[in-house]
Design goal:
mainly alpha
């Protein structure tokens, strides 16, 4: 478990840390509109790119089961299909960038100056789409092979390049949001080059051939789309919730928008950190199913759940002790600091509420139970989060964060019930 989880925890935590660098770089500029613009721009790409996270999740489950069955041709097919679909989606995003950007900015709102800079950020960062989606496929594939070292190196490359270029473009060259966006574009392609090199080296050690019929015939993608279509809907429902939080933050004023942008870094840090253990669950559960070993499946779930709870407690303690200090590092704007600290208790509670859904996401992905994931997520979004937000609307930003935590709790409860009553009985393992 730790051979998979430890590198992925380090890799995943580096992602929100990078977001903190983006926030810190713009949070120390003279105009708070830059911070708000990056918050809006980042929310758009979080929605778009994480909406495509089915490429990573679906590839992991399919590759893990091929790995457990020792099917090297199947491993090649799972990677090839993910890369082809990712490239086609990326080209579509680039072709439709103008209407997508205009619609996203209209939905998110914000004042005219913030919107202007957010539009500039979007028009540059959209060109990272092919590299970003290819990296999703590569990371998912390597996790399926129970090799977390390569995803760690991919993420490390992306984040080190991004951080270095953030500081160079903004601090040294004096660029603003355009420098932050350009750094992200270059970093994604740098990570892809590293990952592609390791793919070539890995496949040389695994005898097999590329099954061209499974890459060129639409009918061969049926299993791929059966899993990934449901994961796509599931992920879009999740991203709608995060997008909605940012949109409502903007409507509560630029100060609340900027403060919530700072606080979302805490949520992303929690989610990406706990997802490292979920990735271990994905690989271990998928391999157990490929090997048809029920004992290995149960052991994987119990082990990763225990350590997920321990890590969630750790995140909560860190936020209690150092949360205010982290906020002060991220921005030196007094009003934004004060507002973010005012709502920090919601982030302190979040790890213990969120841990259950993060872990069960990994279990469901490894078991390729995408339809159940979709149903639980859609229910939690439409029937829990939105009604809760509406009822708590008089509480303002407190109500918004309260509704978000209710949403996370609903996901965890629903997936636990589904695991016990539906997922386990349906596996029929010996």
């Amino acid at each position: 478990m730790w051979r998979i989880a430890a590198p992925m925890i380090l890799s995943n935590v580096s992602v929100p840390l990078l977001g903190m660098v983006d926030t810190g770089v713009t949070g120390h500029l003279e105009n708070s509109a830059y911070l708000g613009a990056v918050a809006i721009g980042a929310a758009i790409f979080t929605f778009i790119y994480m909406g495509m996270n089915f490429l990573r999740m679906g590839t992991t489950g399919i590759a893990a089961q091929s790995f457990g069955a020792n099917d090297n041709d199947g491993l090649r097919a799972s990677l090839g299909q993910a890369l082809i679909v990712g490239l086609l989606i990326a080209l579509a995003l680039i072709a439709l960038q103008i209407p997508i950007g205009e619609l996203a900015l209209a939905l998110l709102g914000g004042d005219a100056e913030t919107q202007k800079y957010a539009s500039e950020y979007f028009s540059i960062r959209i060109w990272s789409a092919p590299g970003t989606l290819a990296n999703y496929a590569l990371v998912g594939w390597f996790i399926g092979l129970q090799n977390a070292r390569i995803p760690f190196l991919i993420f490390l490359t992306i984040n080190l390049v991004n951080i270095a270029l953030d500081l160079f473009f903004v601090v040294v060259l004096g660029m603003k949001v355009d420098g932050v966006a350009l750094a992200s574009v270059i970093a994604e392609y740098s990570g892809f080059l590293v990952g592609a090199g390791f793919v070539i080296a890995t496949l040389k050690k695994r005898a097999g051939r590329w099954p061209l019929s499974r890459l060129t015939n639409y009918s061969a993608y049926r299993a791929f789309f059966s899993v990934n279509a449901n994961l796509f809907i599931r992920t879009m429902a999740l991203m709608f919730t995060l997008f909605f939080v940012t949109a409502q933050s903007a409507r509560l004023g630029s100060q609340v928008l900027a403060a919530n942008a700072v606080l979302l870094n805490f949520q992303y840090l929690t989610s990406f950190g706990l997802d490292g253990l979920a990735h271990a669950a994905e690989a271990m559960v998928g391999k157990a199913i490929g090997e048809k070993r029920r004992d290995a499946l149960l052991h994987a779930v119990r082990l990763t759940l225990k350590w997920s709870v321990i890590f969630a407690l750790g995140f909560t303690l860190v936020y209690i002790v150092a949360g205010s200090s982290i906020i002060r590092i991220l921005t030196d704007l007094p009003d934004i600091r004060e507002t973010a600290i005012r709502y920090l208790p919601w982030m302190i509670a979040s790890p213990l509420v969120s841990v259950w859904c993060f872990l069960y996401d990994g279990v469901y992905v490894g078991a390729t139970r995408a339809r159940d994931m979709r149903n639980i997520m859609v229910f939690s979004t439409l029937m829990v989060f939105l009604p809760a937000w509406y009822l708590l609307l008089p509480l303002g930003n407190d109500g918004l964060w309260f509704a978000f935590l209710i949403f996370m709790a609903s996901r965890g409860i629903g997936m636990h019930i589904g695991y016990r009553k539906k997922v386990l009985p349906s596996l029929d393992l010996n």
